[in-house]
Amino acid sequence: MDGSERIDIGGVSVPCGHLIGGRRVGSPDGYEVITPIDGSPLGHIPAGGPAEAAAAVAAATATFPAWAALGPDGRGEILDRFADAIGERMADFQRVDTHDHGALAAGRPHHGMPRTAWNVKFFSDRARGLHHDTIDGDVVDNSVRYDPSGVSALIVPWNAPLMLGTWKIGPALAAGNTVVVKPPEFAPFSLSLLGEVAQEAGLPDGVLNVLHGTGASAGDALVRDPRVSRISFTGSPATARVIGAAAAANLTPVSFELGGKSPFVICADADLASAARTVAVQFMNAGQVCLAGTRLLVEESIVDELLPLVLAAVDELVVGDPRRPETRVGPLIHPSHFAKVQGLVERAVADGARVLCGGGPHPDGGLYFQPTILADVDQRSEIVQTEVFGPVLTLQTWRTEDELISLANDTIYGLAATLFSGDADRAERISSQLVAGTVWVNCFYVRDLAAPFGGSRASGIGREGGTWSFDFFCDVKNIATRRGTFAS
């Protein structure tokens, strides 16, 4: 592949090559990407390796001084145009996203797509208003600055590549860094198109580079490059350990947002109808959401009242082609991932789990899996301890808050938690004891970009969002000036 190839995805022309230093570049090898809608070929993408990774980092390194020198206001003008351009191409991105990784067409114009543009606009504005704190000491005045750090390597997962990609790209560019983003190998095309939109919006060549390929080749070479100053990765703990070891050799700071096995706690004093509807929401994106509350922990006294409400809400979910407006549960990303999800469920059932709904592939076939809830599961079982990353929930009950906290915190993860309760004191008491980076109380998936986001334990390292993003992507500098040494 020479890098000039384009393919048609849902009527949208999408570039296939790497974007390095403002030019589309190919690789000697490539691979075929399928659409999860029906498993058919979507297009070929070049398989980058060490040479392409080195070239992308070199382009970002060369452009960094000029981009950093623009300052927050100069960069902000360009990033605002970039955000506007994303908004103008919203329909195109929606179509590509749906074919690329199975995102639902319904709701995207109101949720995922606006968030993609807002990820850029928010951090552009935030960088302009990032004040330089002054800390008055006994002898000196301390002035805190947020300086650009250099080249950021951003590695994006396949479950929401465009939204999660801009979640990283926005603050990195606003901080004054230049970027090499590696799209997911299963779903590379929406970020490939984003690179073209960035060029059209006037981002200087080399500020945003797109490196295609597998994690084992392109990704590995990228994170090992000593010229990279920051690494932000979203994905599995296993891959994060490999990246962390590579980053350690260069003492490169990392920010990891990893997996989850989040508890969804429902207390007897909760609004059960609202809780049941929110349980059904956990099947969004076919359960391929790290934040999903996949472990239902229900107070024992209300399980018989709650369960019919939950099953009724889940029964209303339409599984099928994500292009159809009525669809609420689309396909899993790839046959290999489908096999993983199916295997976890089959082993759980063989071990004694009781199927409350679903339990296997959808009758229509393809990469579609039925929304599934399993009861009678042991706390130490694979299905309770392992992130399924599919439309599969487990149900357990508890009697005392001590028992609840023990169950909720008894995994290696600590990404998120959801809690439904009608008692403010009880909600605060339980929330304060849950090991999680985010706890939603009587709501779910409400993300304020000004708030910190990240995970504990095996769910991640660090926090991003608001000023926390700049704490990571910037070199935070303190200037301590002795009082009285300058004429007033």
From TrEMBL:
Record-stated family: Belongs to the aldehyde dehydrogenase family.
Molecular function per GO: oxidoreductase activity, acting on the aldehyde or oxo group of donors, NAD or NADP as acceptor
Pfam family, one: Aldedh
Name of the protein: Unannotated protein
PROSITE patterns linked: ALDEHYDE_DEHYDR_CYS, ALDEHYDE_DEHYDR_GLU
InterPro entries according to UniProt: Ald_DH/histidinol_DH, Ald_DH_C, Ald_DH_CS_CYS, Ald_DH_CS_GLU, Ald_DH_N, Aldehyde_DH_dom
Coiled coil spans: none
SUPFAM superfamilies according to UniProt: ALDH-like (SSF53720)
PANTHER family: ALDEHYDE DEHYDROGENASE-RELATED (PTHR11699)
UniProt key word Cell wall biogenesis/degradation: no
Organism this protein belongs to: freshwater metagenome
Ranges for domain Aldehyde dehydrogenase: 31-479
Keywords in alphabetical order: Oxidoreductase
